[in-house]
Amino acid sequence: MTVLTTPTYDCPKIASSVAGAGRLDDSVWRTVPVGFLTDATGGRRSVPTTAVRLCWDDERLHIRFECADDDIWATFAERDDPLYDEEVVEVFLAPTGDVRRYFEIEVSPSNVVFDAAIHNPDRDRATMDTDRAWDCPGLVTHVAVRGTVHAAPPGKRAERGGGERWVADIAIPFASIGVSEAPREGDEWRINLYRIDRGTRSSFCAWSPTLKRPADFHVPDRFGTLRFVGGLARCSAGERWTPEYARSWRERVGWLVGCNFTPSVASNQLEMWQADTFDPEVMDRELGWASAIGMNAVRVYLHDLVWEADPRGFIGRVREFLRLAAKRKIGVVLVLFDDCWNPEPTLGPQEPPVPGVHNSRWVQSPGVRTVNDVVAWPRL
User: Fold this and answer.
1) Under a CB-based contact definition with an 8 Å cutoff, are residues 110 and 77 in contact?
2) Which among 138, 225, 292, 337 could disulfide-bond with 8, CB atoms 3.0 to 4.6 Å apart, if both were Cys?
3) How far apart are CA 340 and CA 371, in angstroms?
4) pLDDT by residue (tens digit) across 23-45?
5) Measured in Å, how far apart are the chain's first and last C-alpha atoms?
């Protein structure tokens, strides 16, 4: 897969009063549009899920990385240690729009920072100059980890795993990167966002793939565009949407065109989501077809039996599907329950489809036995 265009992120403004000392509350981040990182080389290789969100106020640019990671580790402890040799998230930012000069800021799972000013006159790593003496004044970073951060790489310890995710928040003061005044709505900067995940197989992820093999992040011609936009109407979780919030959502999302989606290799929800028959390669290809004909939304059916048998694995596969859809700029509506067709679903291999019969192997979720057993309802 060759990616010729570079992405644009509409970065919403937030009130400076909610930023405190540079950190934003999770309730604020939930209102900010989300993007996802993909394989930096532009290929189809599966990479760990990494969501990114950006917003700004009168003083700072705020960036959040949300990293799925089942084996989190970090050994470096000093500022400007070579974090790029381990697990890390990275921001490359060219506020003037001149991609020959940009700033590089990295954060590790243990909240260690690497920051440098880059002069890349030929837009080529071979001739670039890295000023490691530059520190970003007033930079605020925070890392929250769900799981264990190992103090040694996988090859130098017996225990593995113990992780789930880590979240890095970065607040960059405009003044620290040579911007004397806050951006105005409509201003555009150049930016790219990256992640390195190292384990038995290393993954190099990018918001705008650099298309280099082996992976190379210092490809400024592949930086995407950061567009500063006005504030988004807000609505707290659980509240009925206000007309203003609904309008802002509609303007942000655009007109939805989509379909029900099941990959061609699955006859029902169980075959789509069970580990033995989950096929991200086919899903990626067929989501690409949907995108190519103008679709930007799909409705996808889940199944309670897959969740009950393997909740962690099931969530991981759902996340992978969401990442594939986001890569194609396709929104997803997840459907929890369905009362159509076969009332007695069972896990394991499914019967082959019946030729000429519509949805011949589709199954209900939950099945009729659960529907008729009120004692079983709480597990749903």
Assistant:
1) yes
2) 225
3) 13
4) 888 888 888 888 889 999 987 66
5) 40
